[in-house]
Each structure stands twice: as C-alpha cells, then as structure tokens.
Amino acid sequence: MLLSSLLSGQPKPVVDPNATPRPDYAPSWGYTTESGERVSVAGAQSIATAYRAKNIISDDVAKMPFQMVQRIGRSVEQVPPSAVTRNMAYLLQVSPNLWGWTPFHFKKASIEWLLFYGNNYIWSPIVGPRQLLILPADKTTPVFDLDGNLWYRHTFNNNSIQYIPSVEILHLMINPDATGFVGRGVITFARETFGRQLAARKTQSRFFAQGFMPAAYVQMPGELNAEARKKVRETYEEALSGSANAYRLAVFDSRITKFEAINIQLKDAQFLESIDATDRDICNFFGLSEHMLNRGKEAYNSNEQKYIEYLQGTLDSFLVPWEEAARIRWLSVEEQTNTYFRFVRESLLRMDSKARGESMAIRIQNGMMTPNEGREKDDMSAYPDGDRYYMAGNILPIGGGPNAQNP
After folding, report:
1. Please, are residues 232 and 220 in contact by the beta-carbon 8 Å criterion?
2. Is 401 contained in some domain?
C-alpha cells in the first residue's frame, strides 16, 4: 500500500514562508558538540542509560490500554471495538492500521518519535478504510498557507512532497518552541551530555584496546625526520598495544637513550566519576529515578512511591496531551460533548495479589463497585446476582436512617 494513495487530493496550498515555523531537528549526521563527538539520534541510543530510559518510558506507555469512553447522563461506559465500522476503539485496542500493527507497536513508536524528535504525527486519512499511520517526524513539517490555515508538509519515500490538511493529523509534541507549533526532543537539550558520554566511552574503549599500555615518550640521539619518528612509534605500538600484549616486556636497542611512561591513572583524572555523573544527568533529562535504571536500590516502600511519582511527574506529560488531542482530532464536535479517551493508568501500578484483593474488597464493601465488576478486572466470568451493590449495615445516610427519630 502506497501512503501517497491515501491523500485526499486537495489542491496544493500556497505556503506563507514568514508564518511557517522552523523545526529544530537533529541533522542526519548529528549535532557537533564541545566534546568533539557528533551526537545523532542513533548515536544517543548507543548510550546504555539513554537506551534504557527510552525503552522504559515507551514500553510503559505502550502497555497501558487506551480506551474510548462515552458518558450518557450519569452512566459511563467503555465504547466497544467494532471491526465493521473500524471505530477508534477498534484502532486503539485491536489494530491501528491495515498492516496489522498491534496497539503496543503503535504506541511505542509514537513515544520514541516524541522523545528524540519532540514531535509525533499520526495521520488518519479520510480516503479508504479508517486507520492510524505514523508519519516520520524528520520528514514532516507544519506549514501555513496565506490564509492562515495549518497544513503538514511530508516528504514520502519516493521524494514527492505532499501537503496534508491539519484535520487529518494528530500532532503530539514535547518541549514546544516559541511558536508552539513544533516540539523539541531530548537530544536538542542533552546533546552536550550525550557528547561527553560518547567521548568518555570512546576513551575507555581505547584504553582497553591499548592493553593498558601507558602513554610514553622515547628519546633518541640525533635528529629524526618525520618518517623515522613514525617508524619508531609504529614499532613500539605494534609490540605493546592491544589487550593480547598487555604487560609484555618492552626491549629496546642502544639507539633508545631514554624511555619513560606517562602514567595518568583514570581514577586520578576522576574518569569513572565523570561517567557516573553524566549518567545521572541523562536520568534527569528523561525524568527517571536512578533506581529505575539499575543505578541504585531503595527500600521497597520507597520504590513504590517513586513509581507513583514517575507516573505523575513523567508519564502524564505524554498521556494527558495525547488524551486531549485525540478528543479534538478523532471525534466529531457532537461526540466531543460526551465522549473522550483515557489511558488506564492503574495497569501500570500493579499490586501483589494480597494488596489487590484487599483493595477490591474495600471497594465492593463500600458500594463503589459490584462483585461482577471486580471479577471482570481479573478476566473472570460474572455470576447471577453479582451486579448488586453492597455496603456495611452499620453505615447510615447523613441525617439518619429510615428509623431515625425526629427531634
């Protein structure tokens, strides 16, 4: 299926260059940093801490069910998926497009574009069966025509440039720029931190590649031309470099008048401490606690509280904008009054079986849910008379019960 075949066929707009925002995307070759390393999106993910942080956030969002909910009067019900109409409930809970993507795949890819590019463009074409497609953020740009209408310019794989009306695009972003129309990814702000870490890892690799061979200088009588100096250097490095040559004996002839190693221990240069400090900076850029990246252990109860803080302080910044934007873009004006989307956050805060049972019992005993509703949460079948609400008999309404005496 060619994506360009799903275009609505509207005429190409006349773009207003003065009103069009300019995305601050990382170029394909990456940013140049003060450390001397070029930091690209792929290179940033080669850092273990950044790679793990990206997966934690995208996997946690992808695991959460994304539901379509309808409120009619005081009744709140989840909209069931329909394979016939391919409603939004079906796209979000069964498969978002005709390629057979899973909802997990779709949500994870969306968050990864957000994290590193700051933008995620979800296209819902009006041509053909209803589906949700992700447009690569590095090939998509919001633009304005001369009438102030918003369009999205996308470069397809065949290098054709097409314009898609804004009503077909759900644009998610983080760290919006001054215009508010373009987001900026973590790499935009953390490029120097990533550069230091890449440089430190490269230095460490070279250190091991040299077989712990110290830097040194060799003194020889007379003057040597460039070719002679190169030959001496290569001879020394061939004999002692590499992990297989570590701690081998160096033998020099009488032409070497002096050999002295320049010993700079990594610990003296606080090398390992700098790597550790940079890892902590990366945790902060992604909004993750260190214990989530295997960088520290706290008490169990403390970790449980940390996960609540992580949900509220980190994940909600991805979840809430998506819920709000989906209501605007994926629902008609009439539907927006009583229909909305929500991520089931409780799926992330999983409790042990004992705590889950106690929580369920409290809600049932206090009339907050029926026994059958509780069984449904555990994928258990309902039973007769399980749809009744219960409450402890020693609790009376405010103002007294039916037998209360009037003063």
Report:
1. yes
2. no
Residue 226 and residue 273 in one domain: no
Cβ contacts of residue 13 below 8 Å, gap of 6+? 143, 145, 146, 149, 151, 163
C-alpha distance from residue 293 to each of 49, 287, 367 (Å): 7, 11, 40
Q: Is residue 372 part of a domain?
A: yes
H/E stretch holding 62 reads: helix 48-63
pLDDT in tens, 325-337: 999 999 999 999 9
Measured distance CA(140)–CA(164) in Å, rounded: 10
Question: Is 66 in contact with 92 (CB distance < 8 Å)?
Answer: yes
Q: List, as own/partner pairs, every contact residues 199-202 make where C-beta atoms lie below 8 angstroms and the sequence separation is at least 24, other chains included.
A: 199/35, 199/36, 199/37, 200/271, 200/274, 200/275, 200/278, 201/47, 201/275, 202/37
Q: How many CB atoms lie within 10 A of CB 163?
A: 16
* Two structure tokens written together for 3: 């994506």
Looking up tokens 């470069």 gives 155
d(CA 124, CA 168): 5
Alpha-carbon separation of residue 321 from 160, 317, 363 (angstroms)? 31, 7, 30
For residue 213, what are the CA distances in angstroms to 240, 243, 253, 266, 394?
7, 9, 20, 13, 80
- Which structural domain range is residue 234 located in? 215-262
Instruction: Report yes or no on 380 lying in a domain.
Output: yes
Task: Judge if 314 and 236 occupy the same domain.
Answer: no
Q: Mean pLDDT in each 10-residue stretch from start to end of the chain (407 residues)?
A: 74 83 69 85 90 95 95 90 95 95 97 94 93 94 92 90 94 92 91 87 67 59 76 68 55 64 53 73 89 66 70 93 96 94 84 69 83 81 84 66 52
Q: Are residues 180 and 78 in the same domain?
A: yes
The structural domain count of the chain equals 3
User: At which of 350, 370, 388 does a domain end?
Assistant: 350
In Å, how far from its chain's centre is CA 50? 10
Whether residues 251 and 292 share a domain: the answer is: no
